[in-house]
Amino acid sequence: MMRTDVAPSRPHDLHDAGMSDEEGLAGALESELAAWVDMAEVVAPAWAGAHGFAYARRGRALALSLRDLPVGMFNRAFGLGDDAPVTREDIDWAVHAVPHPPVWLQPTPGPHEAASLQVLRGLGFELLPMRWAKLAKPLGPAAVEVPANDRLRVRELNAGEGVLFATTLQAAMGLPPWMAEWSARLAGREGWHLYVAEDPQDRAIACAALFMNGARAWLGMAATHAHARNRGAQRALMWRRLADAQRRGARVASTETGEPMPGQPSPSFNNMLGCGFRVCGYRTNWKAPASNS
Length: 293
Known about the structure:
This protein is of the alpha+beta class. Helix content is 30%, strand content 25%. The strands form two sheets. Strands 7-8-9-10-11-6-12 form a seven-stranded mixed beta sheet, with helices on both faces. The longest helix is centred in the first third of the chain and has 22 residues, at 21-42.
């Protein structure tokens, strides 16, 4: 069967749209931070108490901590090092704000990065192998064309369907069942738009989220059930979100994923490139030494 989920035209380049990599990266970092701040704020106090969730702010930085899910994604601090190199005081704050191991720090890439990394190395932080690729896509005046896909249907969920989104995300990512309560609370929240891709039997096989941050759009929380991968669900979800973001006034979209590693497949990264995203920078991940975590 001929594939129908390929890009309908040549992908945009950041420079074609008059946007530098630095501008794309700054916007991508800001949108990701805004989305995660909003996600942190929506957490129910009872759920936070039951699972050891907390968050803290230091300037524009955000620290997340989740005792019952000991992975770096939910136990990290980022947004440090934007205006000046990361300091010992910044790191002490982050380690205190993220008390559950593993503790990750993600210093902001840019002009202060080299000095920030030197501080982290000096304090015994471990550089992890995989960086996070930050990607951006300008949304020009021409309408985003959504390629046809007769193998599935993408639809935006209404405010009463948060559980469907959340359980799809939880199962597809292999998260504990109790995690679904968190993401379900995003349904109907200002700025958030949740989607699923359904197979011909109307079963949700994949999901993804769009967060509107002014004229910027952040694309995240994308996952596909293992049995339904390689059917074009994530590309279909991405094209739909890009079209909807543009219609809602976004001028640029951003997202992130793990940097492709030699010899390992990277379908997420390839899907992003196939939908016209371009890498505008990389952010490193540093794990706190055992004495601090």
